[in-house]
Amino acid sequence: MSEDSADLVSSPSSLHSAYPFPSSYQRRPSRRLSNDSTLSINSIGGALDINPTRPDNSLREAGQNAISTLLQPPIVRTGLLTPAASASSTYRAPTTRDIPPVTLTNIPKVDTSTFKEYISRVGPLFDNLSRLRRDTQSKPQNDAPTSPVLSRHNSASSLLSPTDSPQPRRRSSAYARRRLNEPTPLSTIPNVYFDENFQLENPRTFDVVSERAEIAPGTAKQEQSANASNAILQEKLSWYMDTVEVHLIQSISSASTSFFAALGSLRDLEQEASDSVTRIQKLRADLAKLDQDMAMGGLEVANLRRRYQNMQKLANAVDQVARVVQDAKNCEELVEKGEYDAAASAMSRLDRLIAGQPEPSSEPSTTDLHDLRPLHALQGLSDSMNQLRFRIGRGFESRFLETMLSDLRRHIDNVPPKDTMRRWASTSMRLRGLQTGPTAYMEIDDQFRKDLLASLHGLSNSSQTAQATADFRDAIMREMKHLIRKHLPSSNDDDNESVTSVATRTSKAASQQEKSIILARNLRAMDEESAEDMVVNIYTDISEALRRLSIQIKVLLDVTSTMDAPDSLKSPLSPDIRSTDRSRSPAPRVSGMQEELSQALDMSSLLGQAVDVAHTQITRILKVRTEQVNHLPLERFLRYFTINRLFADECEAISGRSGTQLKALVNTQINTFVRAFGDAENQRIAQTLDSDQWEAKDFKEVDQVLLSRILEGMSSDPAVWLQGTRVWEDPSQPEATNGTSSSNGEGSDAKSTNRPAYIDETRYILVSSAISLLRPIDDFLALITSIPSITSAAVPALIDVLRTFNSRTSQLILGAGATRIAGLKNITTKHLALASQALSFVIAMSPYLREAVRRHASAANKAEVLGEFDKLKRLYQDHQMAIHDKLVEIMTARATSHVNSMKKLDFDAEAKKNADGTSAYMETLTKETGTLHRVLSRHLAEMDVTIILSQIFASYKEQWLKAFQGVEIKTPAGKQRLLKDAQLFDSKLGKIDGFGDMGKTLMNAVEAKTVVQEKQDLPPPPLPQTKEVTNEKPLPSAPITADKEKKDSEETEKAPSVEQEKETKS
Questions:
Q1: How far is residue 891's CA from residue 647's CA, in Å, rounded to a whole number?
Q2: Least packed by Cβ within 10 Å: which of 3, 508, 532, 941?
Q3: C-alpha gyration radius of the chain
């Protein structure tokens, strides 16, 4: 068997295409080939002969895996039928319906772990076999024939028809005879059998294997041909299995020799290894005997020398322990004397002595020092040293705290509160231009640095830096509370103490509660000035303390950067713990101590915590005085708010915390104050209106100052409005008036004339209640200017005050409430005119108020706030129109009354009594109308007077024209008397604006009348000359002089009133 057979086991595709199919030495050529076998002889890969030596000359019966077993029921075969043979009459050929459907069987998947045991046993053998094969391939093979390596086709190509597979090249019989000892090559087997995914139940694979053979032919000829094809196919399958079996036997035979040879070599190697181990054991026994004989003597000598040295060390150690005890006593004496620096140095030397470390500055000693830390006898000394070290650290800590706090208190006492508030204001955006001196909290003297450096050295040596910084934080918190507490009023009540003794108190908690109650009562009882001084002192002290504290922390970190490396005072005892710690971390350095200080004294954390403590205490105090704050005067409240705002901004600038708790309380107090302030102004305005007699008052200089300030607020903020924000100034100092008062154009000799107010050159005669509106308006604008954030809350309060004035005026004048409340006899046209003038005054100021508010309102609610002023203006205009309508209604009612009186007259009879006189109704009407004109001209604007009189005259024209046209005249004298009434009406009222040609219209109506009965012809009376009419005194439209004012007031009493108008209607 050749060496190439080894390759056939692992690679079935390595086939010899040079061999014919079938081999001549295995089967003899057949005597006869059927037609069907001849047709399929080239279907798979070579010529397939039929064995003639079979007894029955028929196809071999198939086994349990034959294709025929798939057919149910089984087909009875009687042998090969000749084409001439006919089928039996009882035989029925199977059809495709007789074939049951093929069910694909799921092949179970076997886990690879099942083969692990087998692989572990076969693996070494397979490795030897592979190595042998590689050696064999490397040798020259002269005998082996060269065969091309055929690659296996993929699954797609394996499914091709057998007729499409490559056909092996046929060889001559002579060549076959020369190679009789070699088996049939595997290339004769189709590639489909070598496919890894070979599954016979796959219809395509089955179709390829069966070579598309007919299963149940229809005719007898087809049936004979199908039987022949099936026989040939079964013979081919048997041939393929024999070929594979021969190749397997050849491969196993060729590999067995090499395997057993390698197994023999392995046994030789094991024997050699066993011999080597035996020799090594013998060598070790020889070396052990040599050590026992020669080395033990020298070892005994070394032990004796070591014992002598140990005795010498013991003596030195005893002397060292005595020095330790003496130094410990010296350290305790220094601590008792308060000499902490010397005690710290002595403790450092003692620690080095116990640890067996020489002094760094001394000369090298001949006596060796020993590490005494493991001695149990020094355990008690360790506790004593720890106590001394703690006392030294506490001493340095007290010195450190005293240095820091004394500097802090000294700085607070040296800075006046006004300087602190001036510094606050200098950082404010609104008062940035304020000049201030240098900041005192940044000045640090050299003595403070020296004291601080000494304290830090001691803390570092005693390892108390972290504890000292923690105690310093606590001390700062206590100092913040102390700064607040020292400015509070006393929490002791002398009267209460005289009655209630300490012995009668039940507990300490009850005593503390009583003190809290007494403190709260004393806080509420403080006056405005004392309360403000208390708040200012608390705020300025805390501000200066925080600023100084921030500088102290910076100086502290700066000093640590200049320090030398400290000597640790940690106890060197207990080496099992501390020596381990020391091995893990290096000795502390300056940078480490500075980092420790920076972490322990985190500036933002420390300052933030101090601010929180201060805000908590301050909030409690301010809550107690909430009721008193709500009733402060405006200037005091503005100062109170400004102080709180500046303090909150200062705390936020120092610590970065906004102080939400304090700001929320102050905002709540602001809103409450605005409501209380608005309610108080509403009550004051209502009381002023109720007591007003509705007489014109002089507009004084102080009123003009207020008005000028309000008008100026349209474009800028007067300095007086910001006076409350200048908290560093004394509130009692008067502020210069911003601007000059406007002159009304009248000389000083006209003191008896009421001085009017002017807005945009428009004159306003005002009553005292209207003038009193200037003060609340000025106050609200000052409040909005000083605190722009409360514009949304202050504007509704101001609008509410103005609405109160409007509604209350309507009740008193239009509703005639002044007759019951103010004691007026009746509501005259003068009162109506003064009320209209007051409304006009507010309407004229509303644009200025609107713009002043707009400059300070936020963008979010600006439209809503400005809309309130527009609504207020319309409300006042509607009220004013109602007053004007009331005047027109009164005069219309009076004209109706006079028309009724005219209808009752007999002009013919009146002419007989007094031919040259005029009627009383006309004289009364003209007098009332003239009086109304004078009153309106004196108190109202010219345009308003013209509008009102135009409406009145329009009503006159309609009524009197009908009245004159409806009079019946029987005599010319009566007609003449009626004409005189028309002439009087025209002459008295013709000069008033808005009268028009109503007089001429009435006279023409009289002229057009016809006499009903004319008893005698009388010449018509001559018409009055125009000169005579013009000679009558005109009604004054300018301001009335002092001489005529009394007369006007008397005539006003006779003017029509609201009550007369009501009586006329009834």
A1: 65
A2: 508
A3: 66
